[in-house]
Known about the structure:
Layout: E1 2-10, E2 23-29, E3 41-45, E4 54-58, H1 61-68, E5 78-82
Antiparallel strand pairs: 1-2, 1-4, 2-3, 4-5
Amino acid sequence: MQLAKVIGHATSTIKHASLQGWRLLIVHQMNVAREPEGDPLVVVDKLGCAVGHTVVIDSDGKGARELIGSEKTPARWYTVAIVDE
């Protein structure tokens, strides 16, 4: 699990069937000093996160498959929590 800052939403007219109806966010991972680190990621959002929120994300493939309800989903990253600051 890692902290990340929501920097936008992804819109897709064509996507994998397992991702139909799911919100996709663009997030930037943060280091321990809460500074952006690495490249932005697209994550599946079930919590209704907004731009500017600090979130906890996870890359557990099994967790993503269980969340989405499909063994064939290409999703890897998903939101776990919104950090209350």
